[in-house]
# Entry
Amino acid sequence: MEESALIQSIRAKIANDILGFHSFRGDDTILVRRESVFAVLKMLKEEFDFNMLADLTAVDYLGQEPRFEVVYHLNSLEKNIRIRIKTPVNEGEEVDSIVSLWAIANWLEREVWDMFGIKFKDHPDLRRLLMYDEFEGHPLRKDYPINKRQPRVAPIWKGIR
Amino acid sequence: MSDTETKTEQTDLIVEEPSGSMMLNMGPSHPAMHGIVRIILQLEGEVVKAADMEIGYLHRAFEKHAESVTYTQVMPWTDRLNYVSPLINNFGYAMCVEKIFGIKVTERCEYVRVIMGEISRIVDHLTCIGASAMELNAFTVFLYMMKAREWLYELIEDVTGARVTISYARIGGVRADLTPNFKERCLHQLKRIRETLKECDALLTKNRIFMDRMQGIGIISKEDAISYAFTGPMLRACGIPYDVRRAYPYHVYDQLDFEIPVGENGDCYDRYLVRMEEMQQSMRIIEQALEKIPGGPVNVDFEGNLIIEPPVVVDEAKMGKIAEIADRPVDVSPNLEGQEGDSYYKVNPDLKQVIIPPKQKSYTSIEGLMNHFKLIMYGHGIRPPKGEAYVCVEGGNGELGFYIVSDGTDRGYRIRVRPPCYNFVAAFPKMILGLSIADIIPAFGSVNMIGGELDH
# Structure
């Protein structure tokens, strides 16, 4: 697999933290260790001018080990380049929060916690974002049934009897 | 005092309630809350001391549902994300799937998408400015802009057959070509819209009341805007000329001439000016694209193996060379002479056939119907290779991103949408800090929150 110039220059800096990389359809992607994700993102922000966190999300690979992947999309407004950083996370493990680097990570991490149940260490306020507080489970996990209903109020006909 | 301030700034949260302050719920059902969102305000007198946003009232599990159906079936749901400019959502999603497939759409299709996308952008900006002007009691402007929007909706309806929930894009193309007299009609409507915008400009831009309500309201600094990953008119109003159409040109935007308007102060007034100018630029783009648009098909053709002539197939088969012709598409007609009817090759992902047959074919011929089913039904569907792709387009509000992880089956393993107004709403408590209640309305109007995309 060929390496793009960007991946090469990043690899030279953080060779020990990298688990893998690819450039499928031109999207440069680097897989880094969970423990070092904060340091890697900080380094990318400060040294490679990736000043915008375009997106933060997760993917649930149910049945694989480790189960989740947290995905960061970075964007550089100066150089007009993008990179995708992924980190594998197992169930119950925590990822370092990056709220101190980008303010939008506050909501994005809350959403990932809400939808996937991945906890972020040192997050100032890790509440649910889209679902309500009493909601049970994490809806975007693959083992959450798509037809499951959790009404906040019992149906009216049950209340009458 | 300074201690509390830093605390509030860090978490955007109401940490403690000093005596004399009041909690006020704005929304979820409030006429000025464009959709359903709740702002929890902590007030001292009429001044906002802290605020928190609560979203999710319109959560419809787009991402969860999109994982459960085939790639083609997701298209109608993308309409419902940003229901003011659904065409751009359609194109963004189609582009992302095309990227995973490795399909390049035809040049005419690219132009059609640019034209329809820019019309959609004008609709979006008209709605945003009209609605936020209406909230400041400028009702005339609202009616003028809705009238102009109606003209554009008529254009869209002409081409796509629908007004709001359009589903016009197809993976590998668009649903239908432009109508024969589209160019004349479009140019005529653009002329009328220019006149309307001139009128609205005269009513608003130098209007003392409008300026007083908009200037210096909802300011966000450059640094904060980048930290909150602002894009689109909100970021450009801060003075950063970032536009996805220019930074990461897709389709034919690199061949078209347009300018990126930027503001200075990052307040509501600058956002209004940026949006007004962007509509002019969009009209320029449409006019250039209408001039340059080439002929040809709008949908991608088959790629891959060459088609074998029928006599050759017969000869090869007589010689017993079955293996060589087994997987190749053959153009066969009943009498082996001409190609009077369309033939349907077997649905094969290697051929990259993704376009569903035209409706008249699927309603009138068994082959067309089967082809349609084979491309759409569960378990058949189109199958991209394994991989992942992120595609961003410039939506009405800013960078609209789609991130799709494919596991090689007919459904997306993970489909994530990055809504542009999510970031604005996240930063909204910061924007209204220290303002009075009345200022929240224009500030929220300029954010142009769309509940559908905000809550996925």
Q: What stands out?
A: Chain B touches chain A through 43 residues (CB under 8 Å). Chain B is about 45% helix and 10% strand. The CA atoms of residues 315 and 321 of chain B lie 9 Å apart. The first strand of chain B starts at residue 22 and ends at 26.
